[in-house]
Task: inverse folding
């Protein structure tokens, strides 16, 4: 399988650069073959590069973020997205969800079922926790397993790639033909924006997110426990044995209190770091700054803005080093997941913001990652 660093012939690059950018824009979008899936389908890799040379690399397999390169305080480009670099490892590697779009419903639904309009919807049960079945990240054959259609998009100040997938009625148990898009935008200010849309012809639930693990020192540069984290949250969710919400608690003075920026390894959960489900303060569904991750080592700072009511964090303690990333083994806590999303199991818990999508409505969610230096 080809690696994402594969060199494209100069003439082909020139053609792609011309067709992928609006005249006058400094953003380039380049496309190349990423290899062949076990299904025989041909995957593509897209590199979106701004005037400074910083870039976002994505693939149509799983509408997935493969790499994100930004400069550190010394001007050296760092790939701050932890994960695999070949199509074969993305398809068959033991860490299935790294970098992908998760859906139709990201995270968990208890009992692999929910009730909608008086009808019980039974989903693919792809996880069992404490003897009870759970539906996780869209099921065994979720959005991360799909080869999405792709197109290059651009406007006066940015460019990117839009991925599209029509999830058929009944897929993994979900009702409705659900037409989804995921768009990655990149600009000259090192802002990575991910937009999600969906429409359906039958009432369903939807909860899309990205599953990238970040290390602002650079992929393969050690663990993230020395990173500083701030989260705009006064209340967290305590999870049950199926990792679905059990009850809410104030964060004040506790292990999930990141209202003032502090090191990840200061979390009393111990040496494996942060595993949290935060409810964002004053949520309205509009874009707002919800979190900041900072590496004193590299000087790279990542602000997160989102429309979503919940931030899930996991510092990768379960990574064992058996899986090899782009340049190094994925050791424990080599990256931190900061997943902007609706609350897990919300189809069964009406006290949380709804994830129901009906015909005639349009689902929209958005998250931006702003990279700067300190």
Result:
């Amino acid at each position: 399988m080809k690696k994402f660093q594969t060199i494209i012939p100069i003439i082909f690059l020139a053609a792609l650069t011309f067709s992928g950018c609006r005249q006058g824009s400094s953003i380039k979008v380049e496309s190349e073959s990423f290899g062949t899936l076990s299904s025989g389908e041909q995957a593509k890799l897209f590199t979106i590069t701004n005037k400074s040379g910083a870039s976002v690399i994505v693939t149509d397999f799983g509408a997935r973020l493969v790499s994100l390169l930004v400069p550190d305080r010394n001007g050296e480009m760092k790939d701050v997205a932890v994960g695999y670099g070949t199509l074969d490892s993305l398809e068959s590697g033991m860490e299935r969800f790294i970098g992908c779009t998760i859906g139709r419903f990201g995270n968990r639904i208890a009992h692999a079922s929910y009730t909608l309009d008086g009808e019980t919807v039974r989903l693919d049960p792809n996880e069992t926790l404490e003897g009870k079945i759970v539906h996780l990240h869209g099921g065994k054959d979720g959005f991360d397993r799909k080869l999405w259609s792709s197109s290059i998009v651009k406007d006066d100040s940015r460019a990117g790639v839009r991925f599209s997938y029509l999830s058929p009625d009944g897929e993994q148990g979900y009702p409705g033909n659900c037409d989804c898009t995921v768009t990655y935008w990149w600009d000259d200010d090192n802002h990575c924006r991910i937009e999600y849309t969906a429409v359906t012809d039958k009432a369903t639930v939807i909860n899309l997110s990205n599953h990238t693990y970040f290390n602002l020192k650079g992929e393969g540069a050690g663990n993230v426990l020395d990173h500083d984290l701030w989260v705009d949250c006064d209340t967290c969710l305590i999870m049950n044995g199926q990792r679905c919400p059990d009850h809410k608690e104030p964060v004040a003075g506790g292990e999930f209190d990141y209202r003032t920026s502090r090191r990840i390894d200061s979390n009393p959960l111990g040496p494996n770091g942060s595993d949290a489900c935060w409810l964002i303060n004053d949520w309205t569904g509009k874009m707002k700054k919800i979190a900041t991750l900072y590496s004193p080592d590299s000087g790279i700072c990542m602000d997160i803005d989102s429309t979503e009511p919940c931030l899930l964090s996991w510092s990768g303690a379960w990574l064992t080093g058996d899986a090899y990333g782009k340049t190094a083994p994925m050791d424990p806590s080599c990256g931190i997941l900061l997943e902007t999303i609706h609350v897990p199991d919300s189809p069964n818990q009406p006290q949380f913001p709804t994830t129901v999508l009906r015909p005639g409505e349009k689902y929209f969610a958005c998250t931006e990652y702003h990279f700067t230096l300190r």
